[in-house]
Amino acid sequence: MAALASTFFFSPPKVSYSSSSSNPVSKCWPAKSLSPENHRNLVSPIVASALGKRLAVTSELSDEDSSHNSFKKLVDSAFVLCASVALSVSLFAGDVDSASAFVVTTPRNYSQMSWLQQDAFTLDLLEVPQGSGSGFVWDTQGHIVTNYHVIRDVAVLKIDAPKDKLRPIPVGVSADLLVGQKVYAIGNPFGLDHTLTTGVISGLRREISGATGRPIQDVIQTDAAINPGNSGGPLLDSSGNLIGINTAIYSPSGASSGVGFSIPVDTVSGIVDQLVKFGKVTRPILGIKFAPDQVVEKLGVSGVLVLDAPPNGPAGKAGLQPSKRDTFGRLVLGDIITSINGKKVSNGSDLYRILDQCKVGDKVIVEVLRGDHLEKIPVTLEPKPDET
Predict the structure, then answer these.
(1) What is the pLDDT along the chain (388 residues), one digit of tens a residue?
(2) Is 259 in contact with 250 (CB distance < 8 Å)?
(3) Alpha helix (H) ranges present in the chain?
(4) For the chain, which residues make up each domain, given as ranges?
(5) Is 57 in a helix, a strand, or coil?
(6) Catalytic residue list
(7) What are phi and psi of 233, to 5 degrees?
């Protein structure tokens, strides 16, 4: 394990692992030339194969110390893992038809090393195509954090390694970050392993739609150069503390354009903790279907309009009223959710954000506009039916 931070070159093994979508950034997905079953970031199984896989489970997101020596010491202990994988297209591909697409063209492989595979019958040497990605040591138990599916999932792997050989990355907080704060990104861009780039936080609390359509809240925007191969790598503050996982870039040209995005560490920590303990992420639901935000805006009100609340779901059990038609066929609007636990709900994004901060089994107070008056209804959150 002395060379744990080295790049690994090998052919990809057959690895099976479970996943739980984390919703985690806007309309980015693997290149369309890949078949659906291959639409995944191969970094996780590759790292696991190189180091001895025990467990690979996935989920679909400070004050600065300007001391250079302090930063260098902590970065040295970050133990960034860079793994080359068999993938002949960019890990960052996007929907060119979308106005908010994240687009990076297939990169040239600049790595000076390659893996040659010998055919058992002809003895010919065949070069294995490669892509790249990154990850880092989370704890002394051998858990590695990386991406499972680019800008969709966080993956946790378990490796066999002596505890004294593992140096977990220092975990910071992302709640108190400031625009203009200096940051560092470490990764394996274009196969160039052990690459460090620097920049500043350009924006905070960005919202980007995930591959499932569910918004990812509080994403960090940075101008630190992030390119294909940085996916899954850490974003650090000037003290060397983890503040985010590099996830996606916006680039119409295919190169870093100074607009990169990272999932904040506060989001990542909650996901990783659940994966380590339970092997999956269980998210609470309110159990409703709601109208598009544009429909509610036309009504001149602010909130989330309940279209359906199945009686066996948490909202239905609590008595939330769905939209329906009366005996004359006229539409009767259902409850409009205006707040949860005192936190204002103006649209669907607010609803998702608040629920993401809750746990299964939590009892929340849902305030609804029913007719011309407000009502407060206690609702006990439940897991998705397929997660029980």
Answers:
(1) 333 333 332 333 333 333 334 443 333 333 333 333 343 333 333 333 333 334 444 444 333 444 444 444 444 444 444 433 333 223 333 333 333 333 333 333 333 344 455 555 555 555 544 556 788 889 888 888 887 654 456 788 888 888 888 888 999 988 888 999 999 998 877 777 778 899 999 988 887 765 555 667 788 999 888 877 778 889 999 999 999 988 777 666 555 566 888 888 888 888 888 888 888 778 888 999 999 888 888 888 889 999 999 999 999 999 999 999 888 888 889 999 999 999 999 988 888 888 888 888 999 999 999 988 999 999 999 988 765 4
(2) yes
(3) 43-51, 68-76, 265-278, 293-298, 314-318, 348-356
(4) 7-278, 284-387
(5) strand
(6) 149, 153, 231
(7) -80, 165
* Residue 166 contacts residue 140 (beta carbons within 8 Å): yes
pTM of the model: 0.54
Q: Which two tokens stand for residue 144?
A: 């590695």
| Domain 284-387, architecture per CATH | Roll (2.30)
* CATH number, domain 7-278: 2.40.10.120
Q: Do domains 7-278 and 284-387 have the same CATH topology?
A: no
Q: What does the alpha-carbon distance between residue 95 and residue 81 come to, in Å, rounded to a whole number? A: 29
Q: How many residues can be counted in the chain? A: 388
Do 51 and 160 meet the contact criterion of CB atoms below 8 Å apart? yes
